[in-house]
Design the sequence.
């Protein structure tokens, strides 16, 4: 009898808990499913805003057009180069800088705040500052420096467009890496370093044998989070180069925007969106496997 | 050979002086224990010897070579830390061989040394594990093994047993004593635990507020403490202190009167006391015995009794309100508020002058 009652009670709390999480779960599901379903649907019909009356089913035609688009392969390779370079720069510089500012010195607090502050600046503002105040071939700070040394100022966005974008985005994301790695360094055991000093380890040995392994996990976290945001990089490109010259700074996100809003082809943009989702998932699959491994490896 | 000599060592953090002029000699093969309350500077002293802290003034010599300014790794010392400080990403083997790897010793002799150290410490089966897969006692042994492979002139231990549970602590204490005997090494050991100090040391250094209070063999410090600090610090439960006044000074004894009116004659030979001067009588709990109310040296009122199984610690108050601790056998049963007599073993009493320094020692313990 009592077991029956408790069973009943258990069932009802079970049912109750399901009921209570239902709103948030269904909300999340709708939030995800509806845009995805609509994107999938749009990607299979002819849907150009210039010819709104003609919405015929076209199958995979949008996909083949998107992949055959002259901007597709540059878009893919630019996305990968952009993500890879920014990751490399922010992780390497981030590690070195955070190790450097970890030893106490006068003004450490202010230096740390200054190092982190670029992260609080909006991407568009950041890009504009770089475009008009720093990299501008006539009035930019860099041009002044070049001229001071008697050199010909560089027209950054014309001569090295992708490199310029990488520079801007790295400046934006370096603080994020520093923030995470700096806090991680504070939990590095002091006695381990002292033991290593007694064992005869110099600065580089301590860095290589103690600091780097200790930072392995926060570095993977930095890589994972930055990848998620960098795959969809848009504002910096839009504000500075507009994807050009040619397709030199067009990444996938910009290509999709280009299709949807400049060519008014919602069907093809949707197909591009689905391709981007697939690519992001492939990246996420490998990342989560790598990160999950490193997260479970150390304690 | 490993003779360490420290002269006039001073260390300050800003305005706070941690070490106020330390002079100390440590001889080859000695097991020296630095003991003192927290904040007395014992760990700082060890760290200056290791080279992890810079000194403000003074000198440290190891076998006639000055090492005061030498880098930690060049001092030929090895240290075991309180937190063990094992390298978490390396296996036990790599932890132990790290110093030798860095020094560029050839692979074959590294393997041999690691194997030998692992044999001594019974770590052979754990060599390929990471520190996180080890128990506290095993980590402790790896930390010791890391020191052994380097074959240092002096081993330094910074409260190495304080993170272990009570049973393991006793076991590791024995292992350390055995290790010291087997390696015939010179060891310096910092602890706040007086049991570790008493059991392990050849020489105990009692520190207080950055100064050395007394140096000597454990039993010497226990039986003939130089001052009230050392007397009170060593011994569990603490020595009881009673205020007293000198009545008369004879050639081989001193007559004193306690605050509660009790007169005692102590067999202490001293010339430094004057009649009527204030002194403090120190009595260890084991040198007081309970007796019938009328027959003892004085009467006390009982407060609390702690039954430890082997002994009973009785905490009592004299009629003048001073505390007295008495160690009795396990059958003793007293209840709170009960009045009883106590008999004091005057031959084992200590007498301290107003500055807290011992005025001399009981005649028969001087033999």
Sequence:
């Amino acid at each position: 009898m009592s077991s029956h009652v408790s069973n009943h009670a258990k069932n009802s709390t079970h049912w109750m808990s399901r009921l209570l999480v239902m709103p948030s779960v269904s909300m999340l599901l709708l939030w995800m499913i509806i845009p995805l379903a609509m994107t999938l649907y749009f990607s299979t019909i002819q849907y150009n805003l210039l010819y709104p009356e003609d919405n015929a089913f076209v199958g995979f035609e949008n996909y083949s057009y998107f992949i055959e688009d002259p901007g597709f392969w540059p878009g893919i390779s630019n996305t990968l180069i952009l993500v890879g370079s920014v990751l490399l720069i922010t992780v390497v510089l981030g590690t070195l800088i955070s190790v450097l500012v970890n030893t106490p010195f006068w003004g450490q607090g202010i230096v740390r705040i200054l190092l982190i502050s670029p992260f609080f600046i909006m991407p568009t503002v950041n890009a504009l500052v770089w475009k008009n105040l720093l990299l501008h071939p006539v009035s930019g700070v860099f041009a002044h420096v070049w001229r001071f040394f008697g050199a010909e100022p560089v027209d950054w966005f014309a001569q090295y467009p992708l490199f310029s974008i990488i520079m801007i985005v790295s400046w934006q994301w370096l603080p994020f890496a520093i923030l995470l790695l700096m806090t991680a360094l504070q939990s590095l055991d002091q006695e381990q370093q002292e033991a290593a000093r007694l064992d005869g380890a110099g600065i580089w040995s301590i860095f290589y044998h103690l600091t780097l392994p200790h930072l392995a996990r926060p570095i993977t976290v930095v890589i994972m989070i930055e990848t998620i945001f960098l795959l969809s990089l848009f504002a910096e490109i839009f504000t500075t180069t507009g994807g050009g010259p040619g397709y030199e700074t067009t990444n996938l996100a910009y290509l999709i925007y280009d299709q949807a809003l400049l060519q008014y082809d919602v069907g093809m943009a949707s197909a591009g969106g689905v391709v981007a989702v697939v690519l992001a998932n492939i990246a996420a699959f490998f990342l989560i496997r790598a990160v999950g491994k490193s997260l479970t490896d150390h304690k | 050979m490993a003779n360490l000599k420290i002269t006039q060592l001073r260390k300050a953090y800003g305005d706070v002086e941690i070490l106020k002029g330390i002079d100390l000699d440590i001889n080859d093969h000695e097991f020296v224990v630095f003991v003192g309350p927290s904040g007395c500077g014992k760990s700082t002293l060890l760290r200056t010897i290791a080279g992890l802290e810079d000194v403000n003034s003074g000198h440290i010599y190891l076998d006639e070579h000055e090492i005061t300014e030498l880098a930690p790794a060049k001092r030929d010392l090895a240290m075991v830390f309180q937190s063990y400080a094992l390298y978490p990403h390396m296996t036990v083997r790599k932890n132990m061989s790290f110093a030798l790897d860095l020094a560029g010793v050839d692979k074959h002799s590294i393997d041999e040394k690691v194997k030998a150290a692992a044999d001594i410490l019974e770590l052979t089966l754990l060599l390929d594990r990471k520190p996180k897969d080890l128990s506290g006692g095993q980590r402790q042994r790896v930390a010791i093994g890391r020191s052994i492979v380097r074959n240092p002139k002096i081993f330094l231990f910074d409260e190495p047993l304080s993170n272990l549970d009570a049973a393991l602590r006793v076991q590791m204490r024995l292992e350390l004593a055995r290790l010291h005997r087997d390696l015939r090494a010179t060891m310096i050991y910092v602890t706040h635990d007086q049991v570790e100090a008493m059991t392990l040391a050849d020489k105990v250094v009692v520190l207080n507020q950055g100064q050395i209070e007394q140096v000597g063999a454990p039993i010497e410090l226990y039986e003939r403490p130089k001052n009230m600090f050392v007397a009170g610090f060593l011994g569990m439960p603490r020595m009881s202190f009673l205020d007293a006044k000198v009545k008369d000074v004879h050639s081989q004894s001193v007559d004193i009167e306690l605050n509660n009116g009790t007169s005692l004659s102590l067999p202490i030979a001293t010339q430094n006391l004057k009649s009527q001067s204030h002194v403090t009588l120190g009595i260890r709990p084991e040198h007081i015995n309970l007796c019938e109310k009328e027959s003892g040296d004085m009467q006390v009122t009982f407060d609390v009794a702690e039954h430890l199984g082997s002994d009973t610690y009785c905490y009592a108050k004299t009629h003048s309100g001073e505390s007295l601790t008495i160690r009795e056998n396990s059958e003793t049963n007293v209840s709170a508020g009960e009045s009883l007599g106590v008999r004091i073993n005057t031959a084992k009493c200590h007498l301290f002058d107003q500055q807290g320094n011992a005025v001399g020692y009981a005649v028969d313990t001087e033999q």
